[in-house]
Amino acid sequence: MNVMAKRQLDIDLSLHHALNRMEFVLHYQPQVDNFGKIIGAEALLRWHSSVLGNVSPAEFIPQAEGSGAILSIGEWVIRTACLEMRDWLDKGVCAESCYIAINVSPCQLKQSDFVERITAIVREVGIHPHQIDIELTEGVLMWDTEDAKQKLFELKEQGFRISVDDFGTGYSSLAYLKHFPIDVLKIDRFFVQDIGFSHRDEAISRAIINLAISLGIKTVAEGVETISQVQFLQSHGCEAYQGYYFSEPVSALKMASLLQR
Predict the structure, then answer these.
(1) Total Cβ atoms within 10 A of residue 101
(2) pLDDT over 70 at 9, yes or no
(3) Which of 38, 106, 157, 178 has the most Cβ atoms closer than 10 angstroms to its Cβ?
(4) What residues form DSSP beta bridges with 45?
């Protein structure tokens, strides 16, 4: 317990200096359509601490949320992703329809001026809101439903895409599919990884796709690692894929190269 407590304290102290020390970097994992074309990418935050070395997001993100540091870190992520999208557009390697998916924490969405903040960044950088996909976990949609609903509709009106990440693993409720302006459901890797081995996982994946189709919502399968998974998901109407079968998360420079190819 002492070791764990010291580790948490070390992470918390280092987090307060990480932005000023420019220790964060974004990597991108492509999202690919049924024709093998890159249509977007998920921005993934990486931290190499000058004190602690590489720290896993699973370890530092919860602490950043608990301390409130996620607000400044999250704004840095949004701005950096927008700037790198602008760079790809300027280089001519990225289509106007391409997008970056950015994970937004509950703390960020709870900010009274969150919509104004992200809209201002997008305008300042000079990209269109439809080129940014706001990714939310199911849990985010469960707090203060009316406030979340209002903000998501405001984001939607501005042109942002809205995605639900890890669908089916959290506080799954069909009610929010009815009440929130959701564009994309991401099928969690937990259901994708055993396609070909588990009839239950295949049935759940198929049900999520069918549900999304009936509601006019797009689907993205996460954690895709084999051609058989792609073929199964494609045969049942999935529209996009993300996983090591196509590419591991890569630097912004490598992502530009993949887009160009």
Answers:
(1) 24
(2) yes
(3) 38
(4) 26
Walk me through the domains of the chain, giving residue ranges and CATH numbers.
Answer: 29-44+63-260 (3.20.20.450)
Across the chain, what does the average pLDDT equal?
A: 92
At 226-259, the pLDDT tens digits run 999 999 999 999 999 999 999 999 999 999 999 9
The answer for 166, left when phi > 0, alpha when psi is -120 to 50, beta otherwise, is: left
Contacts of 224 (CB under 8 A, 6+ apart): 192, 230, 233, 241, 242, 243, 244, 245, 246
Q: What are phi and psi of 225, to 5 degrees?
A: -125, -10
Separation CA 131–CA 122 (nearest Å): 9
Contact by Cβ (8 Å): 184, 164? yes
Segment 153-160 shows an average pLDDT of: 96
